[in-house]
Write a structure and sequence with these properties.
The chain is an alpha/beta fold. It is 33% helix and 16% strand. Strands 2-1-3-4-6-5-8-7 form an 8-stranded mixed β-sheet, sandwiched between helices. Helix 4 packs across helix 5. The longest helix is centred in the N-terminal third of the chain and has 15 residues, at 20-34. It is globular and about 65 Å long.
Length: 288
């Protein structure tokens, strides 16, 4: 299949120059190269500018509620494990109101790909500080500058148990597409945190600002199987502020949640016959 065959034709609602255009193109490219049938794909989104991405796909999709895309995506994957499940949202959706779901989906090692368009600002609500906004950043909600330390999603994901952790840049869709493609084929919870500039409300972390700092881990022969090195690289920008690595930070193999749950091990929930009235009554009777 070609990239275009995954497009719904719905016009994006993003501002001209928004980094999310590059993310959308990278996902389409990855899917085209993997040649996954459209009816085997589910794209789940939350709330925010980035979450409008689900409408751009001609696959199955759910536009969920704020911060809750991962529970929905988890339910979809557990009910029908054959589906390729992609969650897509923003830093506010995933690292703010959805932070607890992020941690627990990672530790369970659900076999899904979580793409976060991280613009370090609340774009949909016109420019408040987000969980990844840097200290000192002046926004509508922090006119004197952010005073809270930003969340580091990469180190958080590694410590929580994610088995594929990467960072991409929407200004380099080819490299980003490679990270997404590998995340989709990886068996386990894959996080791809994407620096995706908000050209309207974030005038600090621009394309130019990022290009002066980013470099690729592949160019330094980084070993993604080394957890200690992965933490070191994941926190490099926190310590230095002048360098921001892109690429695959960490990758390991662990049993999937789907492989350990005794109910799911019996086979997909989808397609099973519903319980009979007598079976339901028997269960209820145990608790009466």
């Amino acid at each position: 299949m070609t990239d275009a065959q995954y497009r719904s034709g719905e016009k994006p609602v993003w501002c001209p120059g928004c980094g999310d255009y590059g993310v959308s193109a990278a996902i389409m490219k990855a899917l085209g190269e993997l040649n996954i049938p459209k009816n085997d794909i589910m794209v789940v989104t939350g709330i925010g500018c980035s979450s409008a991405i689900s409408g751009q796909f001609s696959t199955y999709g759910i536009h969920g509620i704020h911060g809750r895309l991962l529970p929905i995506a988890t339910g979809v994957k557990l009910a029908n494990p054959k589906l390729t499940v992609i969650g897509a949202g923003g830093d506010g959706d995933g690292y703010g109101i959805g932070a607890a779901h992020f941690i627990h989906a990672a530790r369970r090692n659900i076999d899904l790909t979580y793409i976060v368009m991280d613009n370090e600002i609340y774009g949909l609500t016109t420019g408040q500080a987000s969980p990844t906004s840097l200290i000192g950043m002046k926004t509508k909600s922090t006119p004197f500058g952010v005073t809270e330390n930003p969340i580091n999603p990469l180190s958080l994901a590694i410590s929580a148990g994610a088995t594929y952790v990467a960072r991409g840049f929407s200004g380099d869709p080819n490299h980003l597409s490679m990270l997404i493609k590998n995340g989709i084929t990886h068996k386990g919870f894959a996080l791809i945190d994407i620096m995706s500039p908000c050209v309207t409300f974030n005038h600090d972390n621009t394309y130019d600002w990022l290009r002066k700092r980013i470099y690729k881990l592949e160019d330094q022969q980084h070993d993604p199987s080394d957890m200690a090195k992965a933490f070191e690289k994941a926190t490099e920008f926190d310590r230095d502020g002048s360098k921001m690595p892109l690429g695959l930070f960490y990758k390991t193999s662990k049993p999937l949640y789907e492989e350990l749950d005794p109910v799911i091990m019996e086979g997909p929930v989808v397609g099973r016959s519903p319980p009979t009235t007598a079976e339901v009554e028997a269960v209820l009777k145990e608790y009466m």
